[in-house]
Design goal:
single chain, Lysozyme, 4 domains, two-stranded antiparallel ribbon, two-stranded antiparallel sheet
Length: 403
């Protein structure tokens, strides 16, 4: 910000009236601003800068309990969450430090792209900033991550939960995969869970297993409302969920002390910008005119399920590196003319119809009648198997041809 002010001041002092000169100066200003953004948001993957303790590559430093206790005390003092040391969290720290250092290094490399965005949303909702690490546990900072149960995105929303949070899911758009919109939904959902339980770890347990399982665990424990006291009444996966979260918080904050360093760096958030697009545009059309491949475009714009911006009547956000925005604006019309025969006719699958199961119905028959797959029906309704009961309501995004 200071650099920008200095440069602008210099331009004003010059009082240049020549339009060409002004254009050149503005170009210099823009270049300097982008360089500043890159420099201040950069996370280096130069091991020599991080490895001040001279660890050998691949070495797993010994875990000193007293030292870890002290570090976690520091983290705990700076957070409204309970990050104090306990032996269960310690065991997860030991596991991740010895078995997942490469994975955590990749997370550190992805952090400059996602963490500033998460922190903005969390701060806006007055939530603990440490919750940004929840996305590491949930998805490995992969907006296209999908669980075996059908949860998707950085925050791993199930279909029904996502729809309940107002996220759009259709044939071309999945806002569970959009970093901005899914982070906003995650903040609202986490705040709701915290207000319900008044305890962050119970809220996280409910985020993972659902409030029903947490409420059941509270009842089975005799009414106790502390995660560590109801832990063994929770589903197996959820028992380790909070300790895993604590371990990730610790190791991401003290990664260098455990010979874990950033790798495979992503473009920093500060070096990106968003432009609105209201025409149908394929990612390969954009890539053909910019110094960028389809995979990179898809990484920055994961909510477009088919790598296609679906166009009117809406305007869609397209995220690009700031230095490519001028080229996009200059070549947008040419992009549309690049192999236009490959651009499909956009037909959105409508909002779901509600089907009430009748006697004799089977899931396969219902799916076939609506022109969709059994797998889709299961995902839309959070079904683990194919068993359905008479009177049950099913949400179905019917194929337009079947309506």
């Amino acid at each position: 910000m200071v650099l920008t002010a200095v440069l602008v001041s210099g331009l004003l002092d010059a009082q240049t009236t020549d339009s060409t000169s002004t254009s050149v100066q503005l170009s210099v200003l823009e270049t300097s601003w982008l360089e500043w953004c890159q420099a201040t948001a950069c996370t280096s993957n130069d091991t020599a800068l991080w490895n001040i303790r001279d660890f050998v590559k691949g070495e797993t430093p010994l875990l000193d309990t007293a030292t870890i206790q002290t570090r976690m005390h520091v983290l705990d003092a700076a957070s409204p969450m309970d990050l104090s040391w306990n032996p269960i969290a310690h065991s997860r720290i030991a596991f991740y430090a010895s078995k997942r250092p490469i994975h955590l290094g990749r997370m550190l490399g992805r952090a400059p792209l996602y963490f500033p965005l998460f922190e903005e949303a969390l701060d806006r909702h007055d939530l603990p900033l440490e919750l940004k690490y929840l996305a590491v546990v949930e998805s490995g900072l992969n907006p296209k991550a999908r669980s075996h149960a059908g949860a998707r995105g950085l925050w791993q929303f199930m279909y029904a939960t996502a729809r309940g949070q107002g996220l759009r899911i259709d044939s071309y758009i999945d806002e569970r995969r959009d970093p901005v919109r899914s982070s906003e939904a995650a903040c609202v959902f986490l705040k709701k869970l915290y207000n319900q339980y008044g305890d962050w770890y119970l809220a996280l347990a409910a985020y993972n297993a659902g409030p029903g399982n947490v409420n059941k665990a509270i009842r089975r424990s005799g009414g106790k409302r502390n995660f560590w006291e109801i832990r063994y009444f929770l589903p197996r996966e959820t028992r380790n969920y909070v300790p895993a979260f604590m371990a990730v918080v610790y190791l991401m904050e003290y990664h260098a002390e455990h010979n874990i360093f950033p790798a495979e760096l992503f473009t920093p958030y500060a070096a990106l910008d968003t432009i609105e697009v209201n025409t149908v545009l394929r990612f390969d059309q954009i890539a053909a005119h910019l110094n960028m491949d389809v995979e990179s475009l898809s990484q920055l714009n994961p909510m477009f399920r088919l790598d296609i911006i679906p166009g009117p009547p809406e305007k869609w956000p397209l995220v690009l590196p700031q230095n490519l925005i001028p080229s996009f604006l200059a070549y947008q019309k040419d992009m549309i003319l690049h192999e236009p025969e490959r651009t499909p006719k956009i037909v959105f699958v409508p909002e779901p119809v509600i089907y009430r199961v009748k006697s004799g119905d089977v899931l396969g028959g219902i799916a076939s009648n609506y022109g969709v797959s059994v797998k889709q029906v299961k995902e839309w309704n959070g079904l683990k198997g194919t068993m359905i009961r008479v009177g049950q309501k099913l949400k179905i995004h019917a194929n337009p041809r079947s309506l």
